[in-house]
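TASK: fixed-backbone design
INPUT:
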């Protein structure tokens, strides 16, 4: 009996929803007729009614529901609607519990709190249609008699665009998030409101970068910097990164330098400067002061000592490079790059000595040099082995280990097996 009642209740809710959609479509059709009517099309109230209609269409699926409500409260608010199914959805490593309804999906975080939703509407893009209607109302309201209604409507619409923007962001649909953020800015920046929404400008720049819209990212990030909204300097690093991608390295360095002057302890700016100089292949000495500053700000950051080691190695100061790589591994022994770089340094040093030894006519000196070659290879081996354990598919590591064990293969059956193993791994790739 309960099952029968459930089915009847579900069918009733579905029929009611279909009726609501039909009513909404009927109202839209009527509004379409009104804006085609020469007399009504020039009346502010026609466009205000149209805007309110589309806002109501957007609001209908989530009536009485707000973000950050508990699942229990949401289900109480939607008591007349039935959840078709509840499922787990993994979005780029973040797990959500999702209640699926006929016209929406509600996403709850690990604490059972409503994070965002995605809804289906009887018409496409109701918020965009609402904004267009408000823009027409502004044009027609020459005397400003309806300005209070227009402002209130645009402020509400701005919030709704942001709600959809963050939903799209959580779903990693960055183009959709960007579109909604830009329309939110169109609301706040309209002649009726004339506001500068600095925070949204900042987010729009970041989302534009994620969406691959680098020109827009530059535009919005520059605006945010000029407005002083830089998140303790982090935006300088993000802006410089976009400029690098667009090929404007000179401006990127200038932005980072300006950011460093204003926010000397910002880690993102310092690391951005380090990476920029290294990528440009400029005099490594220019980087060291920035690295030293970064280390003072974050002395436990293994990557900063690795970066220092790279600079010293480029300067051919191998002793200091070794010290820096080892310092990096003291901070984090699982740092792949420091393990590989230190192993490669010893490996390359052994090869260089071996090449020189091959030209040495004196047998005694040759023998001593070969001992040094063996010693350098021995130093290299544990770091390369650890690098392999951290990243088994790295070809450079496999090549080095294959070469090392080839040299050692006659010392023991174990070494022969190691050589065959790494040789086989390379052939499989």
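OUTPUT:
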């Amino acid at each position: 009996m309960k099952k029968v009642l459930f089915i009847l209740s579900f069918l009733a809710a579905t029929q009611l929803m279909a009726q609501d959609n039909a009513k909404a479509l009927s109202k839209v059709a009527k509004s379409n007729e009104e804006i085609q009517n020469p007399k009504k099309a020039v009346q502010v109230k026609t466009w205000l009614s149209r805007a309110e209609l589309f806002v109501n269409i957007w609001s209908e699926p989530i009536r009485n529901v707000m973000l950050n409500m508990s699942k229990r409260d949401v289900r109480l608010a939607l008591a007349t609607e039935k959840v078709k199914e509840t499922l787990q959805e993994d979005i780029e490593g973040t797990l959500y519990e999702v209640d699926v309804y006929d016209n929406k999906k509600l996403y709850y975080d690990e604490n059972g709190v409503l994070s965002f939703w995605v809804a289906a509407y009887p018409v496409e893009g109701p918020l965009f249609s609402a904004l267009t209607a408000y823009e027409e109302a502004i044009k027609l309201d020459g005397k400003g008699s309806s300005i209070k209604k227009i402002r209130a409507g645009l402020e509400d619409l701005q919030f709704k665009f942001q709600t959809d923007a963050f939903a799209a962001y959580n779903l990693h649909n960055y183009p959709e998030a960007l579109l909604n953020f830009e329309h939110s800015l169109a609301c706040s920046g309209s002649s009726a409101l004339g506001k500068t929404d600095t925070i949204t400008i900042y987010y729009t720049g970041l989302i534009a970068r994620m969406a691959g819209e680098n020109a827009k990212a530059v535009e919005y990030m520059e605006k945010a910097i000029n407005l002083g909204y830089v998140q303790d300097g982090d935006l300088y690093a993000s802006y410089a990164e976009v400029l690098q991608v667009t090929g404007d390295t000179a401006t990127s360095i200038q932005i980072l330098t300006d950011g460093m002057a204003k926010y000397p302890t910002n880690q993102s700016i310092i690391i951005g400067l380090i990476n920029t100089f290294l990528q440009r292949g400029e005099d490594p000495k220019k980087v060291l002061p920035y690295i030293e500053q970064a280390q003072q700000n974050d002395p436990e950051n293994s990557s900063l000592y690795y970066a220092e080691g790279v600079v010293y190695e480029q300067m051919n100061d191998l002793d200091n490079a070794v010290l820096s790589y080892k310092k990096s591994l003291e901070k984090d022994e699982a740092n792949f790059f420091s393990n590989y770089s230190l192993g490669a340094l010893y490996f390359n040093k052994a090869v260089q000595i071996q090449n020189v030894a091959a030209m040495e006519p004196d047998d005694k000196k040759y023998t001593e040099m070969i001992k040094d070659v063996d010693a350098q290879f021995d130093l290299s081996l544990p770091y390369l082995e650890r690098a392999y354990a951290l990243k088994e598919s790295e070809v450079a590591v496999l090549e080095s280990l294959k070469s090392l064990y080839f040299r050692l293969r006659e010392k023991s059956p174990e070494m022969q097996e190691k050589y065959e193993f790494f040789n086989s791994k390379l052939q499989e790739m």
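COMMENT: The chain has 18 helices and four strands.
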